[in-house]
Amino acid sequence: MRHIDSNSTAPVAIPSLAIVVPCYNEEAVLESTCAELLATLDGLLASGRIRAESRIYFVDDGSRDGTWPMLQQMASNDERIVALALSCNRGHQNALYAGLAQTVEEAVVSIDADLQDGPEHIASMLDAYLAGNEVVFGVRKERDSDTFFKRLSAEGYYRLMQRLGVDLVFNHADFRLLSRRAVNTLLEYPETNLFLRGMVREIGFRSTTVEYARRPRLAGESKYPLRRMLSLAWKGVTAFSIAPLRAITLMGLITGALSLVLIGWVLSVKLFSGSAVPGWASIMVPVLFIGSVQLLCLGVIGEYLGKIYEEVKRRPRYHLREVVAEQRTPVTTRAETRAERSG
Questions:
Q1: Cβ–Cβ < 8 Å for 98, 59
Q2: Over the stretch 241-300, which tens digit does the pLDDT of each residue have?
Q3: Residue 146 burial (CB < 10 Å; 0-12/13-18/19+)?
Q4: Are 53 and 17 in contact (CB under 8 A)?
Q5: C-beta neighbour count of 236 within 10 angstroms
Q6: Which end of the chain is more exposed for a tag (fewer CB within 10 A), N or C?
Q7: Strand, helix or coil at 90?
Q8: Is 131 helix (H, G, I), strand (E, B) or coil?
């Protein structure tokens, strides 16, 4: 089965699809999530958008509840489900990366287990893929379901990242489709500190966006509280921008200029005023100001040194403890399919 791109004469083969779902303590939503994703695969297959050998990859990121036993049972009952267990909790980005690394399908969609990014939009992503795009970003068109603080902080973060020179898609998280070539290219990146939202933009293949309205969360709780959101935000800044280091240089120049002005004022009072009395404020203000600036600068520099320390150790991002999947015929990649046709 083929799809003809209206902008090209070259046929695009209908792909096999992999859906990668990182999971951490998701037993409250897992049953409904699995049922909806399987129904999504059935609908996509019936509409002729995907091939029958498509799969769902659930990645258990060291859950402490009943997530893994549920995944084991699901994978044993349905050959379309692959259950992967990491040896310990490695974080959402590493779990997602582990799932991507295990796929062999020609198109790969990543989605969170709570399905707030509705799987019904995967059809639109596949249409964009069949039109020749190798990366399709899911973009939220509104944030009405978020609290005022979450909406303000999230939009402020994207604007800040843009000002720092980090290339991000506004209001895009980790709901996206990647072609096989895009996935393989992404897996070539050796970073230990993963920030996939920025890394996907770095690969530079033809891309587009699909807008959608995010669903409310039906059960469970967010796995990205404020602390983790701030950690991810800072990781994105330090992984893709040296602007904070340049800001330190600028801050040093500004504080140096202010110090010279203050020194000039102190000397003028001392030399030309008979009422000059050594004051506590004139000593403590510059000492405290410059000391705080120095500590801030050391903190930023230390953060970058810490990232270098983690990178040079070259430790594995994750370890797979167990894989549960029914044995099936390996999926033929798009490159192999084209080679067979040309032969």
A1: yes
A2: 667 777 777 777 777 677 667 767 766 766 676 665 666 556 766 776 777 677 778 777
A3: middle
A4: no
A5: 21
A6: C
A7: coil
A8: coil
DSSP for 2-46 reads EEE-TT-SSEEEPPPEEEEEEESS-HHHHHHHHHHHHHHHHHHHH
Residue type at position 264: G
Q: What sign for the dihedral angle of Cα 92, 96, 97, 102? A: positive
CATH superfamily assigned to domain 2-225+316-342: Spore Coat Polysaccharide Biosynthesis Protein SpsA; Chain A (3.90.550.10)
Q: Kind of pairing, strands 81-86 and 320-324?
A: antiparallel
Residue of 204, 136, 106, 88 lying closest to 98 (CA atoms): 88
Cα angle: 111, vertex 113, 118; to 5 degrees? 55
Alpha-helical runs (H) found in the chain: 27-46, 67-77, 92-102, 122-130, 148-163, 180-186, 196-203, 226-240, 243-272, 280-313, 334-342
Q: How many other CB atoms are found less than 10 A from the CB of residue 320?
A: 13
Instruction: Give the count of alpha carbons within 13 A of 238, CB side only.
Output: 22
Q: How far is the C-alpha of 185 from the C-alpha of 194, rounded, in Å?
A: 14
Q: What's the whole-model pTM score? A: 0.72
Query: Of all residues in the chain, what percent carry a pLDDT higher than 90?
Result: 43
- Residue ranges of domains in the chain: 2-225+316-342, 243-313
Do 30 and 113 contact (CB within 8 A), yes or no? yes
Distance in angstroms (rounded) separating the CA atoms of residues 333 and 104 = 7
Dist. CA 23–CA 321, nearest whole Å: 15
Backbone angles phi, psi at 189, to 5 degrees: -75, 125
**Which one, of 27, 108, 33, 32, lies nearest residue 60 by Cα?**
27
What is the C-alpha to C-alpha distance for residues 81 and 75, in angstroms, rounded to an integer?
Answer: 5
